[in-house]
Write a structure and sequence with these properties.
Elements: E1 12-18, E2 27-33, H1 51-64, E3 67-73, H2 75-81, H3 83-97, E4 104-108, E5 120-123, H4 131-152, H5 160-163, H6 169-178, H7 193-198
Length: about 200
């Protein structure tokens, strides 16, 4: 099933995030404006695509988009203002960095604070319905994964090259053994009770 290009026949930015539920690393948001009539076969929710497919689509999105931007909000800010506010902050900053001001915003999910005077619509599972949101999903995911691979070089114990900072059993065991890093979200429950009791 092909995704709908856009909701409005105008300059429309799709906005999505990656890393919201991670225990470590930033929350990353991307905003993408595709030209009317754009055709990028294979666009879909980034979580439904292979790493190789995401990387190929990233190049095509960047080449075909009228404008795009990607923003990271790090763990210190997340701990200070909470993950929901940090996610919205990342989205707002991504929209602000677009070289073209969009007429409308399509936001993946069910919550968003209005950005300036630009009309917006929240769409649950929008990354599997609209091309511009799917494109934003892919950029957010690939940029964040790349950042986590780079961070992994200095924090090998946590295997961020594999788990990208998410709360796998292996990751939680590493936190228990080695402690939390400056990239961990201290406001999150880093260890679940079951793991702590078993070890």
């Amino acid at each position: 099933m092909s995704l709908t290009l856009c909701l409005f026949e105008s300059l429309e930015a799709g906005v999505d995030e990656a890393g919201r539920g991670s225990l470590a690393g930033p929350v990353t948001a991307a905003a993408v404006i595709l030209p009317l009539g754009a055709n990028i076969p294979g666009l879909n929710d980034s979580k439904k695509l292979s790493k190789l497919k995401r990387e190929k689509l990233r190049v095509e999105i960047e080449n075909k988009a009228l404008a795009y931007s990607v923003v990271n909000i790090d763990s210190r800010v997340i701990d200070k203002i909470n993950i929901l506010n940090a996610t919205i902050k990342a989205m707002h900053e991504a929209i602000k960095l677009l070289k073209i001001i969009p007429d409308h915003l399509l936001i993946d999910g069910n919550y968003f604070n209005k950005y300036q005077n630009i009309p917006h619509k929240c769409i649950v599972r929008g990354d599997s319905k609209y091309q511009n949101i799917a494109a934003a999903s892919i950029l957010a995911k690939t940029y964040r994964d790349e950042l986590m691979l780079n961070l992994d070089q200095n924090f090998k114990n946590y295997r961020w090259n594999k788990n990208k900072g998410y709360g796998t059993k292996e990751h939680r065991e590493a936190i228990l053994k080695h402690g939390a890093t400056k990239h961990h979200r201290k406001s999150f429950r880093l260890l679940n009770k079951q793991l702590a009791l078993n070890l």
